[in-house]
Specification:
This protein is mainly β. Helices cover 12% and strands 33% of the residues. It is built from one helix and nine strands. The termini are far apart.
Length: 129
């Protein structure tokens, strides 16, 4: 009787280890796109632009300096919605939720201060030169 139990357990273990593993799924982006789109993120320079992360109710980094034509991508890592709103009303992302992004290309030289509309203490700026 023991050998029957042993055989059943051994067969069960062999079938588990030899089962085909599913192929890994392809991922196109860690963050789904949010509408509208306009570039930048956490001052890490990516092929797609400069990234500013929104995390812990702050923009990281709070200031970036870029060349004209640079795309800035803001990525929201907080559990609440935020906006990227120009102090001079030059652009406004609208509210976008966690794991969403907003991107904008800055073509003209200048200083572009911005804030989060629902959280006005959140301030930062893009300098284009």
């Amino acid at each position: 009787m023991r050998w029957v139990l042993f055989a059943v357990v051994a067969l069960a273990c062999m079938s588990c280890s030899s089962a085909p593993k599913p192929a890994p799924s392809a991922s196109t982006s860690a963050l789904p796109e949010a509408a509208p789109k306009s570039a930048e993120n956490k001052a890490e320079n990516k092929d797609s632009g400069v990234v500013i992360t929104i995390e812990k109710f702050a923009f990281h980094p709070a200031q970036v300096t870029v060349a004209p034509g640079t795309k800035i991508i803001w990525q929201n890592k907080d559990d609440v919605g935020h906006s990227v709103t120009s102090d001079a009303q030059a652009f406004d992302s609208g509210i976008f939720e966690k794991n969403r992004e907003y991107a904008r290309v800055f073509n003209e030289a200048g200083t572009y201060p911005f804030h989060c509309l629902p959280h006005p203490q959140m301030k930062a700026q893009v300098i284009v030169k």
